[in-house]
Amino acid sequence: MPLVSVIVPIYNVESQLGRCLVSLRGQSLPDFEAILVDDGSADRSGEIAEDFAASDPRFRYVRQENRGLGGARNTGLWLARGRYLAFVDSDDYVDGRFLEVLTAALEADGADIAACGVTRVLGDGSSRPDRDKSLPAGSISDMTAFLPGASFSACNRLFRRELFDGLRFPEGMAYEDCACIPLVLARARRIVSVSDALYFYVWRADSITSTAGSGLDMLQAQERLEASSLAREHPAALRRYFYRNIVGSLLWGMLSGREPTDGAAAILREGLRRYPAPSCAELRDALGWRKLPFGLLLTRGRPRLARAYARAAEGLRRAAVGLRRKSS
Fold first, then answer.
1. Which site among 98, 253, 296, 312 is 20 to 30 Å from 194 CA-CA?
2. Of 292, 314, 287, whose CA–CA distance to 305 is shortest?
3. Residue 211 and residue 94: Cα distance in Å, rounded?
């Protein structure tokens, strides 16, 4: 049996897929299998994946009707035979030492999860560290302190397989990581993180995480978490999820020129009822997580947008105060 199972969900990524699979084929740790799950692609993605599987026995190709990212990952989990699990999105790629470094760190530390740093690759070919998806370097054992500020990405990590026993990604919704990975993290006794940026996240303007979301899928993810043991054992993590992800997403939509919808207002109202009295730090969290950090706007010489950002921050503060007064 392979030491590591790498699950690669594939859907209409013919222009990026080759780079991803080449980066896996060149891993310095040879003892792995790559499970290529073609989620009903309509382009040449399936053909490219089949060619890799035909030329390298470590690559396994399977095709299914379209079930979304969660469904493709679940198929990979069902097929996985490795002691450890990794997830690599098919439009991303990894350093040649990705599996070797994470496996060595996990085993040396006796951890359940190993994580590495992430580099964000932009459309013009430039890159920068992605701090949203990275964890602080070192060993983590206090999950109560760790979870409220944790990234819920499935990628850039190596998991002991048993952490997923009885857990699967939700299907038919976006932000499936946010509904599953917090539960996986909460099961871990110990997490080790290395500072090396070994995972390359390719940012696309049309991807789920780079567009202004309605917040509805994020709220669905939160509701799943609230129905789990996480709500009882780690309530601070759910509170931060609301302000950091849901409010942040709605605010990003406002800053992108979208008018707040009745649905967005209802989400904000219901969230503030569940998680009242946001602190200044929580409001900064909601505003600062998305791609418009205030200082960056100023340094790029876009004062008009910076003023819009400041108005949105003040609007959120006023909305929170007004809703609190109505509910009291």
1. 296
2. 292
3. 24
Q: Give dist(CA 72, CA 158) in Å, integer.
A: 18
Backbone angles phi, psi at 158, to 5 degrees: -120, 125
Three-state helix/strand/coil letters over 137-192 = CEEECCHHHHHHHCCCCCCCEEEEHHHHCCCCCCCCCCCHHHHHHHHHHHHCCCEE
Q: What are residue 269's DSSP bridge partners?
A: none
Q: For residue 59, what are the β-bridge partners? A: 34
> How far apart, in whole angstroms, are the C-alpha atoms of residue 106 and residue 108?
6
Q: Which two tokens stand for residue 223?
A: 């509701």
Separation between Cα atoms, residue 160 and residue 85, nearest integer Å = 6
Q: Please state, in angstroms and rounded to a whole number, the distance separating the CA atoms of residues 19 and 25.
A: 10
Of residues 87, 92, 88, 36, the one with CA closest to residue 64: 36
Distance separating alpha carbons of residues 221 and 13, to the nearest angstrom: 26
Quick check: 190 and 158 in contact, CB under 8 A?
no
The residues that bridge with 60 in the sheet, in sequence order, are 35
- For residue range 170-221, what is the model confidence (pLDDT) as tens digits? 998 887 888 899 999 999 999 999 999 999 999 865 554 444 444 567 777 8
Tokens 């932009």 locate to 122
pLDDT of amino acid 289: 44
Q: How confident is the model at residue 315 (pLDDT cuts 50, 70, 90)?
A: low
SS3 state at 233? helix
| Mean pLDDT of the 246-256 span | 64
Which parts of 125-279 fold into alpha helices (H)? 143-146, 176-187, 216-226, 230-233, 235-241, 248-255, 262-274
What the chain holds in terms of domains, given with CATH numbers, is 4-209 (3.90.550.10), 212-327 (no CATH)
Q: Please tell me the pTM assigned to this model.
A: 0.82
